[in-house]
Specification:
This protein is mainly alpha-helical. The protein has eight helices and no strands. The protein has a domain of 99 residues: Serine Threonine Protein Phosphatase 5, Tetratricopeptide repeat (Alpha Horseshoe), CATH 1.25.40. About 7% of the residues have low confidence.
Length: 180
């Protein structure tokens, strides 16, 4: 059974991050509902993130399922469900703190949490999430989130500075992968 779940997660992950990037804008409501059901099945299979991909990889997959689930709920504008899912992802990701991918996973989690708070109109809660995301891995999307928060507070100087940093980091990221 665990091999089936692993393959399902890999398939769902490749669907979720395809040529359109890491959002679900191009999915229909039916497709989003279908993905939600599949990620919930993964979570029900391993709610405590104990299953491991292999002996070599020392973390489970449930934290990723919660992360994808949060983004799907955001797409449906179900922000409270999204907030609960991403907080669970944050909690489960803390359990893999010694893994080399911890900072990347957790940075993305905090970015998503920041966006949820921003979309709920809670910029005071959003800003620390974006800052934590940046601390973990200089996430260019988190700089965009901070830009939005500063713009909402009418601090245009800080908004521009964060936008400039986001553009710089994204350009560096693009250049890095283009070279490889």
């Amino acid at each position: 059974m665990s091999e089936i779940i692993q393959k399902l997660l890999e398939q769902l992950s490749s669907i979720a991050v395809d040529e359109h990037g890491d959002n679900f804008d191009h999915f229909t409501d039916f497709q989003i509902d279908s993905l939600i059901a599949k990620f919930e099945a993964i979570i029900n299979f391993d709610p405590d993130n104990k299953y491991r991909y292999s002996r070599e990889i020392e973390y489970g997959f449930t934290h990723q399922a919660f992360s994808f689930l949060a983004e799907l709920y955001m797409e449906k504008k179900e922000y409270e469900k999204a907030r609960k899912a991403i907080l669970k992802a944050v909690d489960l990701t803390e359990k893999i703190k010694n893994n080399e991918l911890y900072e990347t996973f957790q940075s993305d989690n905090y970015y998503v949490l920041g966006m949820i708070y921003y979309l709920l109109g809670q910029t005071d809660k959003a800003m620390p999430c974006f800052e934590r995301s940046v601390e973990l891995s200089n996430n260019h999307k988190a700089f965009l989130g901070m830009c939005l928060c500063y713009r909402k507070k009418r601090d245009l100087r800080e908004a521009r500075a964060n936008l400039k940093m986001a553009k710089t980091l994204k350009a560096l990221l693009y250049t890095r992968y283009k070279i490889l």
